[in-house]
Amino acid sequence: MSATVLLVLAAAGIATLISWLVLYPVRYYARQLGLLDRPGGHSSHTVPTPLGGGIGIYCGIAGTILIGLIAAWWMQDPERAAALQRSLGGLLPEQFWGAAITHAPGVWSRSPDMFWLLTASTILMVLGLWDDRRGLSIIVRLGVQFGMAAGVVFGLGIELTAYLDAGWLTKLMSVVWIVAVINSFNMLDNMDALSGGIAAIIAGSMAVVMLTTTDPGTDRPQLLVAGLLLVVAGSLIGFLFHNRPPAKIFMGDGGSYLVGFLIAVSMLMATFVGGPSADGTVRPHAVLAPLCVMAVPLYDMISVLWIRIREGRSPFLGDHSHLSHRLVDLGLSRTAAVSTIHLITATCGLSAILLTHVSLLQAITVLGIVGCMLTLVAILESTRDRGAKS
Fold it and tell me: Where are the beta strands (DSSP E) in 57-147?
């Protein structure tokens, strides 16, 4: 295992530990904080369950990022780096310190962007917590989401670069992408371990892509984006210890807004094509990797909106028309339905990894696999619909 991979895995481990520990007091004080999801409405659980899982996820992400930035700043000075290595050198392999010192300047150079991302993430997490606690109108929720997305795109210049140079149109597409991903994860948060598990699989898959795809003009992996994605995945794993069936705490809107935002922005920060391969081939089809890995959340969101509109209901009111509920209606248990969706998401994630390393003809095959998976789900659901009508 390379020292670089060890470095980012260590960051993910720290995020997991922080998230796991923080959620114990959050669970204990959830009632006093007003973060309790009671049975009723479109909720399918039968006992009052704490909300606020997003607090633990946020602490894992923000805490690890701040630790990383402080370490990167400290290691700017060779003497300080050497002193730190002498005091902690026995705890970690020698290669770890070499990788940390090598990458520290690059990480610190992106610290302004990371602080702004943390600011936007904090605002969205607080928005979600307030929505969990008091309830907010769709206008307020979407208004803040679009505002944070626009701030990142227009303020930091983080935007879609899929061979498009359409000025304001590209920026608009980037803003819509961020908001769509935020709400796709929010809509998936309807069964124990569902949204958190899907998000962890997607973040982990994209991190592998970043570690195996170099920045154009360099031979280095995209360490910053990979590290951010693995920190998100690590925090989610810490949360899933509390959210596995039967869930002791739910992610809530605070967690889904935060996770969706960071995953969406990470994909915009990334370069999927990279430089030419060893045989001189450039793979423009690799830009489809985000759509590939996000196939399940986007399928769920689009199908749910279509069902609600077709039946004359508001597209913004929660119900039991999600993919997970539809699989339960087919006869699967809730646990089996969640596991099935995780498996489909993992297949899409593996396909996205392959997509960035294969030729055009092979990429068509990979995309065909993803299309077949979603078509199979749609066929099974049409069987359910015919059974209901008969």
Answer: none
